[in-house]
Write a structure and sequence with these properties.
This protein is of the alpha+beta class. The chain has 16 helices and six strands. It has a six-stranded antiparallel beta sheet, with helices on both faces. It is elongated.
Length: 467
């Protein structure tokens, strides 16, 4: 304010002085006044300009002095006028405001990055286990419930996995009022949305009119332009905070990658297994007496593995290992495989190479299943008299012991060129008699019990295969 008054006073003085000076040197009064006013304004402008430059220079010096004092933790020793301090304070406030804004942006970015890393680490720990993923996401988002609804266009149903805090429920829901409402919620926009408890305008076009009793976050699962379903979070007590909402969105985006990867993995796995099954059938077809042998061993191994209560990954290993267990026979001459008489010792030595050949073939590929031990050791014996390495007892991998029983059992109940098929009951008695010698005694006993409970599985399929 004082600077402004000083500028006005200087301007007036310049005008008066210029008018008096012009009047003194000029005869015409009007002309002298006009000239004086013009000259006065020019002088006033120049003086005010230099005064303002001087003030700005001094203000910058004061600004730097104060900032240096702040950095050093000292107090300024010079005295300053009130207008100078006012200008400095205003400038300091502006700088602090900009600094706080940038600091908040940086902290927000760092917090989001930290949350993203935390979510990623936690999801990596549980791998592809969807139930564990849902539990982690529910906990991190501060939600009371979390659900994944994936749409199956073939059956026109939603496959729902819901984590409610105590258990994970999985089922299919046909299109109905609620499911259509969910679809309309997320199809109404491409991004996520949060619906607060109570009446919401976003629900006005949906079939249900009652207010929601909880907060609801709905996030679409999209990869590119393809839509897979939605992830939904509910909060029965309190409301979702902004940070919880962002965590839910980030977690759902990562989950969408998991779902997409799962879809790709399922398709690739199905294609691979179909290819392997066709290869196994072609190998079995080299010998008319072993046609569909690998297929039967695989089906029975999967059923027996589930009956034993094995983990899903172990059952998958049995599935692929059963198909591939005779892969090495591709290196055995056809005349040996098709020989109608009993094999000579030399020919039998060639047959005994097929587990090693199969393992060598598989070792060149990177497979997600641990099947090489099955292929390599399914002809080992419990008493150590098997091949190729003469392993004994529990030295033999567990799944190889399972396939060994099923491989031998199928050979017993199938026709061979040198003998007819055994009845199933006789083959089961042979398994019991060879327990502790050829077979794992515990697994042999379990298999006989399993076969006795599922006799139709063996009798019907073998009879059809021997036709």
């Amino acid at each position: 304010m004082r600077l402004f008054l000083n500028c006005v006073a200087i301007s007036c003085i310049c005008v008066v002085v210029a008018v008096l000076f012009s009047h003194a040197i000029s005869v015409g009064l009007p002309t002298s006044i006009l000239s004086g006013i013009g000259i006065g304004f020019v002088m006033a402008f120049l003086l005010n300009f230099f005064l303002w430059r001087s003030f700005q220079k001094k203000l910058r010096a004061l600004d730097n002095a104060i900032l240096n004092c702040i950095r050093k933790g000292e107090m300024p020793t010079e005295s300053y006028k009130r207008d100078e301090l006012y200008g400095l304070c205003k400038r300091v406030c502006e700088v602090l405001s900009e600094f706080n804004f940038e600091k908040q942006k940086r902290e927000s970015s760092e917090r989001k990055l930290g949350q993203f890393k935390d979510i990623l680490v936690r999801l990596q720990r549980v791998g592809g286990d969807l139930e564990a993923l849902l539990r982690q996401l529910k906990w991190m988002a501060g939600a009371s419930g979390c659900a994944v609804l994936s749409y199956d266009p073939e059956g026109d149903v939603f496959h729902v996995r819901f984590e409610n805090g105590t258990s994970c429920i999985s089922n299919g829901i046909e299109r109905g009022i609620i499911s259509d409402a969910v679809w309309r919620v997320f199809l109404s926009r491409s991004g996520p949305m949060i619906i607060r408890r109570g009446v919401s305008d976003r629900l006005s076009s949906l079939p249900f009119k009652a207010p929601l009793p909880y907060d609801l976050i709905v996030i679409p699962i999209r990869i590119g332009n393809k839509f897979y379903g939605i992830v939904a979070f509910t909060k029965e007590e309190g409301s979702f905070s902004h940070d919880e909402y962002e965590v839910a969105v980030m977690g759902a985006q990562l989950l969408s990658l998991v779902v997409h990867s799962s879809h790709l993995h399922e398709r690739l796995t199905s294609t691979f297994i179909d290819t392997v099954a066709a290869l196994a059938e072609a190998i079995d077809a080299k010998d008319p007496y072993t046609r569909y042998h690998s297929k039967r061993v695989t089906e029975w191994a999967v059923l027996f593995g589930r009956w034993l209560g094995l983990q899903p990954q172990q059952v998958d290993n049995l599935h692929v290992g059963g198909l591939m267990h005779d892969l090495g026979k591709i290196a055995v001459p056809d005349e040996v495989l098709r020989k109608p008489q009993v094999l000579s010792p030399e020919e039998f030595e060639l047959i005994k190479l097929h587990p090693v050949k199969g393992a060598e073939i598989l070792s060149r590929a990177s497979l997600p299943w641990d099947v090489i031990p099955i292929v390599l050791h399914h002809h080992e014996r419990w008493d150590g008299k098997g091949y190729p390495h003469g392993l004994r007892g529990e030295e033999i991998p567990f799944l190889a012991r399972v396939v060994a029983i099923l491989d031998a059992f199928d050979a017993m109940i199938s026709d061979r060129a040198y003998r007819p098929a055994m009845p199933v009951e006789e083959a089961l008695r042979r398994v019991i008699s060879d327990a502790g010698k050829q077979f794992d005694p515990v697994l042999a006993s379990s298999f006989v019990q399993f076969a006795s409970q599922n006799m139709d599985v063996f009798v019907g399929r073998v009879e059809r295969s021997n036709l």
